[in-house]
Queue: 2 jobs
Job 1
Amino acid sequence: MSWEENVRKVVPYVPGEQPKIKNIIKLNTNENPYSPSPLVYKAFKETDLDDYRKYPDPTCSELVDSIAEYYGVKKENVFVGVGSDDVLSMAFLTFFNSDKPILFPDITYSFYDVWADLYRIPYKQIPLKDDFTIEPLDYYAENGGIVIANPNAPTGVKMPLSEIEDIIRSNKEVVVIIDEAYVDFGAESALPLINKYDNLLVVRTYSKSRSLAGLRIGYAFGCEKLIKYLLDSKFSFNSYTMNMPSLRLGAAAMKDKEYFEETVAKVVATREKFKISLKELGFEFADSATNFVFARHPQKSGKEIFEYLRANGIIVRRFDKPRIGEYLRISIGTDEEMDKLVSALKEFL
Ligand code: PMP
């Protein structure tokens, strides 16, 4: 017998490319085109490197307190992690421990099935409707837990909060995770429901709307008991998931409400303008409530457009998967970047 038979094998998630080439237009991983808040720069400059001799605060109190204050919840309702990937992974490990399958859509964040495989969680992927919306009735079946991204990725489609609430209410014996990575760009958050349903975990990130993908900060809201269980897992895994810069700079970013709202509004305005241009060029797409648009052209293959853009210094994302292979997921950049993209698409067509 070889040692390899005892290896925990998994087919990993493949993140979008982070190219080293300069002067490209990077619209492939839904980063924010605007810089982090000036308060983040200030906190960075005031950092004393000698502090790094010590371990960071394992309770992450500076960051947790800033998030609790911003959203008007108790610190006991907040969990933080190394990006929402870390928060979600910890939540899968903690809450999905049943023999029954967890449920999530067939087209959604492609890390969910990877974590389920990694942790040996049975799962069932439920087809989205043809218009990429979720059928709530599909989530009333017996299950070991539910995870739904709202708005969904890579489709960009949002679900009304009333439908989300119905799913949470109908599944009180399991934990329902709502992944709100993109919620700030146009969907209604389930956050107000955490006091009503103790089986609800709402997951957020600094990577998109707060312009800090590089710091890797994610967070989650839930009732005290749910958060306590997450902390038990975290402290059984790694006490110091969050490094000192993330704790400090993340807290600084959370204090700048005005800048946050201003940059989100700019991204949303660019998105709406971009939708009009895409329509004029004949692209088809479901209405996006995120900082990206998921579009296909009825006459051109997704692969062809992708490769043309890439050859012209514009990187978008394409998933070589059933149902969505012809689509491109295009992150919203600055107005200038989107204008260049539209010109390139015009030339191609
Ligand atoms: N959820 C969804 C739906 C996402 O698209 C992403 C971004 N890849 C994440 C979670 C994870 O983002 P992060 O780890 O940067 O917070």
Job 2
Amino acid sequence: MRDVIIACDFKNREELFVFLKKFEGLNPFLKIGMEIFYKEGPQLVEELKRMGCRIFLDLKLHDIPNTVEKAMRNIAKLGVDITNVHAGGGIEMMKAARRGLDSVEEGKNTKLIAVTMLTSISQEALEKELKISMPLQEVVKTYANNAKEAGLDGVVCSALEAPIIKKMGLISVTPGIRFADDSVNDQKRVATPAYAKELGADYIVVGRSITAQDDPVAAYKRCLKEFC
Ligand code: C5P
């Protein structure tokens, strides 16, 4: 069940479709995030689902439980494969998200996962900015436990944390993936696709290491080869 998810962080539909044209016949799993969703809206997701794409709708909901539940009811109608919330919203919020998804027929098969800690957050930022004095891995573990208690399917975390997540019986979806010869950009906790596999990640989310390459299809195939 291991798979590579391409983070489609594009400005708009046109850019996305120029990109997808190169992938004809490969049907990659796509992550639709805030940038393009806020531009194109749910119509884009409906269009991609009609085309048979598997979608991870990465909107990272984080609000009071009532608002999240109602927002999830609308997301549920899109019938996406995976969607998410921030674990930082607490157990009640995560339970409300699950309820929202389950209350709509098309949302019942949608996997709900929680972002533990953004992979762009370092231990230093955790301590100095967020005033959390625990080791990052402990925070991830606590948030993942909360997600499990709320009935979620898994978490978004760095590949480095995949082993503890696996032990908890949750699926791990791991961004912060770079090839050994790539630049790290703004990500802090990174792993190569091969290392993510070794650590037991279920899905890797790869953005710029595919989308910003001269030959994105070759980079995607390299990910599949290393990870799947
Ligand atoms: O380009 P890059 O591979 O760094 O893209 C990673 C993608 O994963 C981005 O779309 C980002 O929003 C997302 N993400 C992340 N860290 C998380 C959750 C999602 O980088 N904890």
